[in-house]
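Researcher: Next entry in the queue.
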Amino acid sequence: MKVWLSAGEVSGDRLGALLATELRGIDPGIRLAGLAGPRMRDAGVVPHGDALLFAHAGWSSVARHLPSLVLGAMRSLRAVRDFQPDLFVAIDSPGLNRILLRRMRSRGIRTAWLAPPQLWAWRDRVVPELSGMDAYPLHAFEGAALERSGAQVHWFGFPGPRPEASPSGPSGRTLALLPGSRSSWRARHEPLFRDAAGLAGLPLDPVVAIPEGRVPGVGEAPVDDVLHHAVLALALPGTGVLESALRGVPTLVAAHPGQFDRWLVRDRITAGALSLPNRILGDMILPENVGTPSACELADELVRLWERREDVRIRLAALSVAMGPSDGMARIARHLLETQLSTECV
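Model: Structure for this entry, 346 residues:
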């Protein structure tokens, strides 16, 4: 069997590597290729393009890099056509994967989507490409929004890595700053987060988490090292917040999109919590400030979060259980292969 895995950013590369490992464990003779980052390559996925090429956030960033993104998508289409997969698995990255999925389905290739678009965050949004497709969301609460687009939703538990919190709480003295892995948002938020940390004046050492493959500078460290020693965090909405919350780290969730991006999403965002831990637990446990926060405002919120950190840490203890069985990726891999085999028999 030949399977194409199409990731488009750091988090997708991590998920793709976990899926590749599970698929090989079930069928050692399976052939895996696709848009792969370093982790997927290490897991045995033959790369036909770099997953991290498409790691852009916000319409302004996409517009600036549009020529290279279009060229990359065209190359990807040619590579998939030459590989002729039996199964095409999109992993996150809706901007890229919607284009590829349309082409795959028109050629009669079975498709599936791991970490499909986060439709729960958008009012009445529908993605036609999901109609009739097997979709494997990361979280149970995403199912209803995906079904509105006609997806066949299968949730087996959160399939990503799930670090455990220390029973006695974090023991370091680090204020983790998580401005994300995408270059455009990182450039916007890292100075803001550094300024907020300085103004907060907490008895902690601010350390910026850096993307994989980059050499740490002064006040920087790989994300796993930062979170291992963190007792408080300031993070963009996304997987970084989930990782810190799973470790029991009280986290302030903040974002300051550009004016153009704010205008595009006006009145389109779903009401309620935007961070994953708050959505999963159904409560505003972590403070959120998404819009136009200043460094002073974020500093004040960090101080307030520091003062109630023990209560927040205790409430975050329920998060891992709420994310379902820990073997979610193994179940997804089995379902993908069993469904493929049954389709071929028919």
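Model: The chain has a mean pLDDT of 88.
Researcher: Noted, moving on.
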